[in-house]
Amino acid sequence: MPVSKATSQNAKQVLSISAMMSACTAALILFCFSQCATPVAPKGGPKDHTPPAVIADESTPNPMINYDLDEIRITLDEWVQLNSPATQIVISPPIEPRPFPRLDRKTVVIPIDPATLLDNTTYTINFGESIQDITERNPLVNHTFVFSKGPFVDSLSISGVVINAHTGEPEPDARFILHDNPSDSAISTVLPSYFSTTDDNGRFQLNYLRPDTFRGYAIKEAEFGNYRYNVGEQLGFLSEPVILHDTAAVDVRIWIYYPEIPIRAIPVRREAGIWKIALTREASFIELAGDTAALLYWEHTRDTIKIWHMSPDTLDLHILEAGVPFDTIKITPYVPEASFVSLKMRSGKIHPDDPVRLKARNPVASVNTSLVRLAQGDSVQISSFSMVLDEVDPRNIFVKTAWVEKARYYLTLLPGAVTDIYGNSNDTIEFVTSFDERVNFGLLKLTLANFDPAIQYIVIIMDGNTERESQIVNSKTDSVLVYNRLPAKDYIAKIIEDGNKNGRWDTGDLATKRQPERIFMQKLEGMRPGWDLDLTITWPEK
To answer: Which SS3 state, helix, strand or coil, does residue 493 take?
Structure first.
């Protein structure tokens, strides 16, 4: 029977509508399934503070012996997510290749091939805060899974603290590692037998250890998760082996430090008439040899050498530390350039019994006080004053007179008043200064207790990060230290055990088994205006 054109069109419309409905239905079904398969946080209601809990019956037995599975499965009672598993999940001893955890619905899965495990060795997996629920990110904190390829689980432990040797503060996020290989080179070449990571208080804990003798180290890897020491990273070591036995309960303290790098001189640079030689580290007992007769003046402070000369020839200088040469430098010829001498006045609170210090850029050759004017206020001219060159640092000039508290002084240096070693002199320079009241300063008396009389110490009074006072102390004779005219504020006493008596702090050295020199820091009771502060510092036991 023939079909009309209109009937054919209606049929096509019906089919088209039917196809659209089928597509919509399929899309709706897929949407519903996707919502069922993807966990989402519920909206509304009270805030969830409960962390996920492990369902033991649905998880791999913990602890587990005679491990022969392909993977470890930990099933939780709610949907979870993994937060930073690469850094949070720690397996000790480390396994290579490192297992990569994944999620299977509510289950954390860690594939571990038994062939990668050591015989009769207990492994621990610490999950840190990696397992979190998806609602409020509540973590299952420090969940630990323990397993062994052998017939038993080891039960010994060691704990302790890692301390930054330079600051005396606990070192967070450091690794404490144990090696059964007695060679110190093992820390750079092989994986450790066990390791743990320190918390915010520098504390660590290692459990499920086997009876054995180990070497203990602390490292802080530049590449987290490497578990090996690389040159340039922080390092610490225990002087004695760690012996674990059936009744062992060991707690240790280990100091971590940056190993000393070889000393050398960095290429010389000249700034005006000063040659500056930077050293790769702080040094002590620096000497110069070679063409030293041509030098006008030189100084060494910490990791810098400064040289002044006006030789028309290139100078060859050898640099020595404690009598041992370590580098040779060339100093280029110098013809002094005409310039004005510049000076700076010390800032901050000045005690009226102290001199005013002026500091020049170059060492000073002479001072002509007839070209200097000193006035108190706007009208009182002072003629009775002196200007003295510092015997230790000839760049310093001390201006002395009977200063008056709270008075304002005007110091004018007319042209030619100060001449430096290059023959240059100053243009007119004017300074204004005043002096604080004596009552705003105090006296600090420190009594040193429990200090070893055979050891030299360095006592430093710190004002924030600035060294205000520093002195070498021999506790045989210097059991009481007095610091006068200190501005009223809080200070910190920093004391260095200077075992080799070189006048500076020395870091550790693994090759010679030398521990870093100990540093002790103590916050001092607040200095009050006009008060004498009498304190005792007791050197702590090792």
So the answer is: strand
Residue 493 lies in a domain: yes
Considering the domain architecture, whether residues 357 and 322 belong to the same structural domain is answered as no
Cα angle: 438, vertex 447, 501; to 5 degrees: 110
DSSP state of 228: S
pLDDT tens digits for range 163-214: 999 888 999 989 999 999 999 999 999 888 888 889 999 999 998 998 999 9
Residue owning tokens 């499920």: 208
Burial of 62 (0-12, 13-18, 19+ CB in 10 A): middle
Whole-number Å distance between alpha carbons of 52 and 40: 15
| Domain final position from 205, 234, 256 | 256
Domains identified in the chain, total number: 5
- Quickly list DSSP for 241-255: -EEE-TT--EEEEEE
Are 429 and 464 contained in the same domain?
A: no
Supply the range of the domain harboring residue 485: 439-538
Q: Report which of 272, 354, 357 is spatially closest to residue 306, judged by C-alpha positions.
A: 272
Q: What value does the CA radius of gyration of the chain take, rounded to a whole number of Å?
A: 36
Mean pLDDT in residue range 451-477: 87
Q: List the strands of the sheet with 315-321, edge to edge.
A: 286-290, 315-321, 324-331
Show which of 388, 415, 436 is a domain's final residue: 436
Residue 348 is assigned to a structural domain of this protein: yes
Bridge-based pairing of strands 156-164 and 250-256 is parallel
Return the exposure string of 530-540: e unless at least 16 CB atoms fall within 10 Å of the residue's CB, then b. eeebeeebebe
pLDDT at 531: 83
